[in-house]
Amino acid sequence: MTLSLTSALKPSPALSVSYLERRRLFFALMTLPAIIYVLVIGVWPLAQGIWFSLYEYNLLKPGRTHFVGLGNYVDLLSDTVTRGAFVNTVVFTLSAVTVELLLGFAIALALWRDDRFNRICLALILIPVTITPLVVGLVFRALLLADYGLIGYYLAEFGISDPRGLFANPSSALATLIFVDIWEWTPLVALILLAGLKALPGDILEASEVDGATALQRLRIIIIPLMLPSILLALTLRTIDAFRVFDSVYVTTGGGPGNATNTLMLHAVKQGLEFFNIGRASAISNLTLICIAVIAAGFILLIRRADRKANGR
């Protein structure tokens, strides 16, 4: 009697197969909106941008649109403005990310101990990260104006800055933009590195301290090698984000004075929205995307190499 009841309650193989098929169909339908969103927002504009970059396409002269192949990319290589924008972008990225990593690591070490004071300090230093880059640029532009800026006026009065202001001087404009980026994004780097510090195994650090290792030796031999994944993560995120900087540059200098602070993304926007040269703007955007992809691939290789080294392979 018991066996017959158990066999009666057990689902048939056909019913199980039908349930699995319905389950797979349900999850496929649940992911369909996300797939459509990625295709519409990401893949389609990217494909359209690649297509436009192969044409001489100007909205002011739609009748003269014609296929040029890689002509737009070849023209960019000989264009002094584009080369200058590329150099400015590289200088901005390398300078800002290097300082942010060093300062962020110092801040993370200072806030490593988990107490109330450090938690309050961490909450305060994270305030700049919560502000959008557009607003940060507007605030620093207002502060550093030589005419009525709260800081810029006194800098100009005491001869520390150019009478026109820091953003109006070609020799100081880019450095000022780098400082603004450092002020805003160093707390994010510090937060990532602090999470890496708190994940370190305490027994290894205690054993090294018992063995008589100095703080510098622990930092060089134990802490930095174990924190390499967190360091590479911070470098990857900030390098990619800094390379496509646009908001703060647009509202502070607009790429000026001259082309002293012109970046690749800003140059692409100018070509597309000011000169309506869609083909050239698409080529510049694709060039920026290629650079970012190369940067990301390089960091992935470094992460894999660090992982193999940590596992002794």
Automatic annotation (TrEMBL):
Designated name of the protein: Sugar ABC transporter
Domain ABC transmembrane type-1 positions: 86-299
PANTHER family named in the record: BLR7065 PROTEIN, INTEGRAL MEMBRANE SUGAR TRANSPORT PROTEIN
Transmembrane feature ranges: 25-47, 85-112, 124-154, 174-200, 221-240, 283-303
Location in or out of the cell: Cell membrane
Family membership: Belongs to the binding-protein-dependent transport system permease family.
Phosphoprotein keyword on record: no
Pfam families: BPD_transp_1
Record keywords, A-Z: Cell membrane, Membrane, Transmembrane, Transmembrane helix, Transport
InterPro entries hit by this protein: MetI-like, MetI-like_sf
Source organism, top-level taxon: Bacteria
GO BP: any one term: transmembrane transport
Organism, scientific name: Rhizobium mesoamericanum STM3625
GO cellular component, as recorded: plasma membrane
Topology term for the membrane: Multi-pass membrane protein
